[in-house]
């Protein structure tokens, strides 16, 4: 077997393809790293603050603080005009609610079924509507003549009994009429009867929405 000598090994090394040597040098060369920003990422609040601009310094005196509040609120005339507009808007919504516009009613009063029930109750002369004024008169009579306490208590018990009976009868009538007029409705039963009873127990002038029919009118 023929052994390689020192001169022959150097000859073989020099005969290696130069492109291979370039690849090996590239693989062994240290890779470059992306340098860091050197600062933390700004928070969202700080970024928004920079976009809006610098913040005003805190007021040094109470007078300066009051001046800033007045500048934010506007002039006295502007505040009065805004308050007047709000009052006018509230009054307009209340007027439309009392007129019975469905958009401005409370959820319990909305819908054609509830409007029909109100008309049925308003067209009747209900004894239960006299309970509140009569109860007030009886209570005042107890202060004027304390000896009438027993009689007043008995009279109020009798009135409450009539109220319960009339409320039951009124709820029955209202439910039957609603089923005839709106056969597909699910708004019936005790809830509808209670709604009609509460409406009937109120003084006519204090009912909201306002009655659209008079006592004795056909509905």
Structure characterization notes:
Residues 22-35 have a biased composition (Polar residues). Keywords: Membrane, Transmembrane, Transmembrane helix. The chain crosses the membrane at residues 127-145, 151-171. It comes from Nocardia mangyaensis. The protein is mainly α and 219 residues long. Among the domains are: 64-99; 107-201, no CATH class. The chain is 62% helix and 0% strand. The chain contains 9 helices and no strands. The longest helix has 33 residues, at 149-181. The N and C termini lie far apart (128 Å). The model is unreliable at 1-32 (pLDDT under 50).
Keywords:
0% strand; elongated; disordered N terminus; transmembrane helix; single chain; 62% helix; mainly alpha; 219 residues
Enumerate how many helices there are, as a single number. 9
Shape: elongated
Query: Helices and strands: which structural class?
Result: mainly alpha
The sequence of SSEs as H and E is HHHHHHHHH
Number of strands: 0
Q: Which residue ranges are poorly predicted, with pLDDT under 50 across at least 5 consecutive positions?
A: 1-32
Instruction: Report the span from N to C terminus.
Output: 128 Å
Give the integer mean of the pLDDT values: 78
Largest sheet: none
The gyration radius over C-alpha positions equals: 44 Å
